[in-house]
Amino acid sequence: MAAPLPLAPQGEDPTFAELLAGRPHLSLHPAEGLRVEEVPLARIAQAVGTPAWVYSAGALRSRARALKAALSAAGLDAGIHYAVKANANLAVLRVLAEEGLGADVVSEGELRAARRSGIPASAIVFSGVGKTERELRLALAEDILQINLESAEEAERLSALAASLGRVARVALRVNPDVDARTHAKITTGRSENKFGVALAEAPALYARLAALPGLRPVGVAVHIGSQITAGVSAFRDAYAALARLVGALRAAGLPVERVDCGGGLGIPYRDETPPPPEALAGAIRATLGGLGLPVMLEPGRWIAGPAGVLLASVILQKQGAPPVPAGGPRRRFLVVDAAMNELMRPAMYEAWHGILPVAPAAHAAPLSPADVVGPVCETGDTFARGRALPAMEPGDLVAFLDAGAYGATMSSTYNLRPLAPEVLVDGARFAVVRDRQPHEALFAGQRLPPWIGAPAPGGVS
Ligand code: LLP
Predict the structure, then answer these.
(1) Is 378 a catalytic residue?
(2) CA distances, 127 to each of 6, 51, 106, 209, 306 (Å)
(3) All CATH 3.20.20.10 domain ranges in the chain, comma separated
(4) Are 147 and 155 in contact (CB under 8 A)?
(5) Which candidate, 436, 442, 441, places its Cα nearest to that of 422?
(6) In principle, which of 201, 252, 263, 305 could form an S-S bond with 406, CB 3.0–4.6 Å?
(7) Burial class of 449 by CB neighbour count within 10 A (0 to 12, 13 to 18, 19+)
(8) Gap between the Cα atoms of 126 and 133, Å rounded
(9) CB of 200 sitting under 6 A from ligand 1
């Protein structure tokens, strides 16, 4: 074999042992290999096949509790409204509902998922820049805790609708504080050029307008500046300080403010990031908003669900790349796995780095060489990792993509007509399939030929 490629980028990737050390619900059993809590991933692969999402109920609970503890240690009266978009599996939502978390939803589907999971309407916030009339009707019918308005236009629409239904919507005004969250451009939401919220300068007049409109009761202000925020708490602090000044101005104008919604965004370490701990976020909230004497709300998604899940996949084959041009140098080693960008889209969409751990115990002590880990989808973007240090792997060997509990399954598609992967919840030594693998038949459900196009002759696979 040709000389191995240098590990790229050299030396920055955490080792397998470091990845495990930072994720207490994962461990390496000397005989059974990689486990989630007490369940070997190999057993799950045997039961449901691959690819499959595997979530740790224990991790979900301990993260929810850690966040609550950090907020209450800071003396905050805080409600946590989990951002359902991160992971909307009903079993996951149920675990979080049992922990007393509310929900932040952005669609009818998410609102229904939250309600089905037993999250009371009185703990649900509806966010988003474009809520349809149908969604607003449902939110009003359910009498949810709060609808976060993102524009004057939306306020007028909701007012007319609520008034026509004889209802009063509790609304918060989402402001765009124009702060840089220093995260990926595609998930930055608090800059003035972004589509979200209303300009800070225009917020007082609009809030006064909300108070005057029929069918609306303004209850507070909201902000969400972006996601996967890892560069300290200064951006949070700037945004919350702006909210505090706004609340001061609103109060001075005699307008009622009952609470402040701090949004989500707290990042997690995927590779070598050192995001602020929840205690630091709680400290930033206290320092900026604590003096107002108001309850606060948080809308975390990733921080709760991300580290709690893995995407389990099998190696289909290992192929050698073409001889490099100009000649010389090593060929690339491609590990083709049975998961793809249609399952975990984050690497293709945001150049995101996810840890990849072999499941077999021996693979953790084997020599490493660089590999490009790719899926079978017909796009070069269907690449999970380039030049990743991994052992030799055979067809059928299992790998786990780490930190796939948030924005994994919820962003999946059936691209290349690949059925949606099953979801499994581990809880201690037990596990259960909480979503079946989509049958191929479901890929065709609801489709029909127009009457003027002849049906194919029966026979063969369908
Ligand atoms: N609240 C609002 C209004 C949001 O828009 C979001 C996320 C959250 C809360 C939750 O943010 P978190 O705590 O999870 O950062 N697909 C991307 C992330 C998109 C986030 C969209 N909004 C990714 O995979 O990185």
Answers:
(1) yes
(2) 46, 32, 5, 20, 20
(3) 127-300
(4) no
(5) 436
(6) 305
(7) exposed
(8) 13
(9) no
Residue 367 has pLDDT above 70, yes or no: yes
Quick one: which atom of ligand 1 is closest to the CA of 303? 13
Element (H, E) at 250: helix 234-252
Ligand 1 atom closest to the CA of 302, numbered from 1: 14
What is the predicted pLDDT for the residue at 9? Answer: 43
Q: Report how far residue 325's alpha carbon sits from residue 330's, in angstroms, rounded to the nearest whole number.
A: 10
Q: Which CATH class is domain 127-300?
A: alpha beta
- Residue 226 in contact with ligand 1 by CB distance below 6 A: no
Q: Contacts by 144-147 with C-beta closer than 8 Å and gap 24+?
A: 144/111, 145/102, 145/121, 145/170, 146/170, 146/171, 146/172, 146/219, 146/220, 146/261, 147/171, 147/172
Quote the mean pLDDT of the chain: 95
pLDDT tens figures, 394-453 = 999 999 999 999 999 999 999 999 999 999 999 999 999 999 999 999 999 999 999 999
Instruction: Single out the residue of 225, 236, 87, 213 nearest to residue 159, CA to CA.
Output: 213
Q: Taking phi first (over 0 means left), then psi (-120 to 50 degrees means alpha), and beta for anything else, what does residue 301 get?
A: alpha
Q: C-alpha dihedral over 23, 373, 313, 434, to 10 degrees?
A: 60
Ligand 1: does its nearest atom lie under 6 Å from the Cβ of 415? no
Over residues 197-247, the pLDDT tens digits come to 999 999 999 999 999 999 999 999 999 999 999 999 999 999 999 999 999
Q: Which position among 378, 445, 453, 457 bears the catalytic label?
A: 378
Specify whether the CB–CB gap between 334 and 372 falls below 8 A: yes
Which residues in 273-291 are b (16+ Cβ under 10 Å) and which e? eebbebebbbbbbbebbbe
Mutate to test the pocket of ligand 1, among 63, 85, 126, 150 (most ligand atoms within 8 A of CB): 85
The boundaries of every CATH 2.40.37.10 domain in the chain are: 16-56+306-443
Contact 343, 51 (CB under 8 A): yes
CB 227 within 8 A of CB 270: no
Q: Which of 74, 73, 70 is nearest to 289 (CA)?
A: 74
Tell me which fold the domain 16-56+306-443 belongs to.
Lyase, Ornithine Decarboxylase; Chain A, domain 1 (2.40.37)
- Report whether residue 346 contacts ligand 1, using a CB cutoff of 6 Å: yes
299 Cβ closer than 6 Å to some ligand 1 atom? yes
pTM of the model: 0.96
User: Phi first, then psi: what are they for 434, rounded to 5°?
Assistant: -105, -5
